[in-house]
Amino acid sequence: MKRTSKKKKSFVVLFLFALLAFTAVAVLISPLFEIRQIEVVGNSTIATEDILGRAQLETGQNMLAFSANVVRAQINQLPFVSQVDVVREFPDRVIITVRERVPVANIRVAHSATYLLIDDGGMVLESGSTSAPALPVAIGVDFANFAVGEYLEVENDLVFRDMLRLYRLFTRYDFFPKTVDMSNPADIVFYTDNLSIFFGSMSDMDRKIQYISAIKARFSPEARGFIEIRDINERPRFGLIR
After folding, report:
1. Mean pLDDT, the chain, as a whole number?
2. What are the residue boundaries of the structural domains of the chain, listed by start?
3. pTM of the model
4. pLDDT in the model for residue 127
């Protein structure tokens, strides 16, 4: 009797296993769960085609035949991607939501005509022979190597962190110099089309940027001049060059 009972239990286990396997195969080949729509949202810089190319998803695939984690990891390889989420909406829709990195500055590679586009964390988003318009170009930043999609490793990390904070202040106060000369971190100089701004060190950078933004408004767009603000606690100087 015991042997018969064990046989029955084994038969039931095998039957259930076979039933589950059959059900899984049926679901995977069923047209009811085919992807009919793939929607990408949140991207403005990255082309939707590039995101879908990394995702390796196509209409006609089965909704359950891909790993959302794998798709996320593949899309995250795009330098401009900060965060990505992949959601299945049954029975036939996949939504890919992307959060992009925001570029804040260009860095010119020393002794070359190469420019790096970076975000506010120091990630290299792209490199090219021209700088991105409307964003400051930093010169005098020392580093040995760079790779697109990786964080830039500079020789003086503390100064670099301060520089990134400085660029965030540019955005906050809507002041964007054309060039930021970092050759001497103790005596930084900004250049706009018409102004030379002697900024000095990174001390009191928040107050300095506020002051520069206010003073700059007094200059006409065509006026050429300077702003001397190395020590915000002394009286800053500014004037026109005729």
Report:
1. 86
2. 31-100, 103-240
3. 0.79
4. 96
